[in-house]
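Typical record was shown:
=====
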Amino acid sequence: MLPSSIPIPIPGGLHDPLPRFVKVGQEFDLSAISDINASVAQQFQRFADNELTGKSIAIGIGSRGIKQQPQVVRALIQELKTAGAKPFIIPAMGSHGGGSAEGQAAVLASYGYTEEGMGAPIRSSMEVVELGRIERNDPVYCEKLAMEADHIIMCNRVKPHTDFRASHESGLVKMVAIGMAKHAGATALHFHGMGNFNTLLPAATEVFLEKTRTLFGVAMVENAEENLKHIEFVATEDFFDRDAALLEMAKTSIPRLYFNSIDVLIIDEIGKDISGAGMDPNVTGRPPSSLPGFDTGLSINRIVVRDLSEKTEGNSTGIGSADVTTQRLLRKVDWTKIYVNIVTAGVLEGARLPIVADSDRDAIGIALRGCFGVTSENSRIVRIRNTLEMTTVWASEPMIADIKLNPDQNLLSKPFHLEFDSDGRLNGQVI
């Protein structure tokens, strides 16, 4: 265990004067669905010929904090109940939530998936049924409660993954192959490494769809503000084609930082609710897996992570991609949660600890010491809330000339100094 304070007595100290900052607006395509309930009702009509009276239907929900997914799920449940079905929700999240039924139910509850909020029971189990085997004799599993239901529906966001590149990344195919397979299935497929997911995920999904009574999948694509721009109910025979096509749509929708180079990137919070890697490598260019395909065109010298998000509940996965963090963050880590997640995935780098600073002010000073040839006052520093919310960012004054030349950025404030409290904690929020 680290001591509660680690003095760093170096000549000159860590608190060199920092440049002033400005608030910067970033422009993204923010087209979004205006009426989610109507969109769900319209999509559901494509499957209205199914006789659902009295049928039990398991709805698989993952571990990500998808902003508008609860509204989609509520609307879906209402459509199913109107059709006479008996829907219930199950966690479809592999080893997340500490790898326990209680932990996974708690993850869902933290996002608002409760019986009262959804109008349907929440049932959680880690038991699985083996469906068959794929190449290399790897088992394919399905959550037992889902297998016992009359039908299964998967509900997930389609998005570029944080650790690997393939035709199918985060989306319906991965949720089927790993999420619905619980800890056992996640362990089996991760054994071969994410570099093999391009073949493993489709193979496992093919067996799953053949052996289960899957009704359809609900695929969602978000815009850069996490609002839904696309909802599509996908028939099982179209899973592969549509999952791949929607991934291409999602790639054009993820937020990014419109800079060429940053000396120090300050991230206020990371968490599993924000990204599977805590902070999205599609933004930072730093996948914990070190697999290729994450060249964002942005050079970031050092990354400071200040804290964990509240909803990550101590899971600090991805902290290994930072250069400096804080004692405050470290005190919040649930080591069991992160170790279960990391060891299951086999990407041990995600749990490595960076340098731990006593305060935010010290962390920034340490990061700047790691930027060779850069003076503190002339440094290019960017502060963001997290890697999902980047329509407003803070940038240091030496970056203003570049900002003025970028048509996708605009200045929102006059220059101001960063403020820290008596404990060295950075004040204010990036809004």
